[in-house]
Amino acid sequence: MSDLVAIKAEARKAAFVQRKVAFAAGQGAAAAHLGDVLAAHVGRVLAGYMPMRTEIDPLPAMAAHDGPVCVPVIVGPGQALRFRRWTPEVRMIPGEFGALIPAEGDWLEPDVLIVPLLAFDAQGYRLGYGGGFYDRTLEGLRAARPRLAIGFAFAAQEVPQVPVEATDQPLNMIVTESGPRTVCG
Predict the structure, then answer these.
(1) What distance in Å separates the CA atoms of residue 179 and residue 174, rounded to the nearest whole number?
(2) Containing H/E element for 155?
(3) Distance between terminal CA atoms of the chain?
(4) Measured between alpha carbons, how far is 19 from 51 in angstroms, rounded to an integer?
(5) Domains delineated in the chain
(6) Each residue of 33-48: pLDDT tens digit?
(7) Contact status, residue 61 vs residue 35, Cβ threshold 8 Å
(8) CA distance 84 to 106
(9) Contact, 133 vs 109, CB < 8 A?
(10) pLDDT at 185 over 80
(11) Greater model confidence, 101 or 77
(12) How far apart are the C-alpha atoms of 97 and 64, rounded to whole Å?
């Protein structure tokens, strides 16, 4: 195991604990802040996510978005995510890793992505679960044209520095219960 892999594994353990504590304290105004940010993107295709475990919940902001909304679908190991149209009424089924996905619907290409994470830093880097799905996806989408990637997290998930590899894709913005902020990266 390389040093960076071990460092990231240890950082993930610590981040899970920190997020669990923040989750117990409640979401506060996080969804309202996210909704305010999304109001500037009316009509654009938004990719959200279905919250799992102690992830902060973007569903209220997704449901209020004035435009098409989709959620990620894992199509296979080592591949970029695809995104299927979502509404609060769509029938959901378990997908890979237990995340709920729409049972059917159109495939969409997002302009704005709400990205889940374990930890983030002021430079806009995120620590995910280690599968590289969002990094591959953002790299591919951004190769075609600019995309807005918004990390959605509890403020307590911020760390001084996320261990970074060359393949890690930075976020453009972070939204927490404390409000939105553009990152330094």
Answers:
(1) 8
(2) none
(3) 28
(4) 13
(5) 3-182 (3.40.50.10420)
(6) 999 999 999 999 999 9
(7) yes
(8) 6
(9) no
(10) no
(11) 101
(12) 27
Name the pLDDT band for 120 (thresholds 50, 70, 90): very high
Percentage of residues in the chain having pLDDT higher than 70: 98
Q: Residue 11: is it exposed, middle or buried by C-beta count within 10 angstroms (0-12/13-18/19+)?
A: middle
Query: pTM of this prediction?
Result: 0.91
Amino acid, single-letter form, for residue 163:
P
> Shortest CA distance to 82 belongs to which of 100, 106, 58?
106
Chain-wide mean pLDDT for the chain?
Answer: 93
Contact 10, 119 (CB under 8 A): no
Q: What share of the chain is helix, strand, coil (3-state, %, to 5)?
A: 30, 20, 45
The confidence band for 5, taking pLDDT boundaries of 50, 70 and 90, is confident
Structure tokens at 93: 């089924």
66, 43 contact by CB (below 8 A): yes
Select from 131, 134, 139 the least CA-distant residue to 152. 134
Residue with tokens 């509404």: 87
Q: What is the percentage of the chain residues whose pLDDT exceeds 90? A: 76
Residue 86 phi, psi dihedral angles, 5° rounding: -135, 140
